[in-house]
Structures are given as C-alpha cells and as structure tokens.
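Annex B. Sample input.
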Amino acid sequence: MKPDLLEILCCPVDRADLRMTATKTEGGEVVEGALTCTKCGTAYPIEDGIPNLLPPDERD
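Annex B, continued. Sample output.
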C-alpha cells in the first residue's frame, strides 16, 4: 500500500482519519502493518500490501 493512499482512506465505522503503522516495507510501499482509527481505535490489517477495511465483525 502506498502511504499516499492514507489521504483518501477513512475508518469505515465512523469515517475518522486512519494512522498507519508499517511492520514491513518494500520500495516505499507498506507490505505488512496496520491502519488504526484515530477516533474509535479499531485496527485494520495491511497484508501483502492490501488494507483490509472490513469492519471487525465482518472479517474472517
């Protein structure tokens, strides 16, 4: 996931801003990490460069 995408993404639960935490990067892109809502604190995983923005109760 390119960090620039953070500008257009928001929490699907309450539409608040997201904060990115990267645990693995490659070529300036986040491959593994998480997006965390600045309001409700819900964390959304980033796996293989793809953020999973499904609400927690709808994930596998």
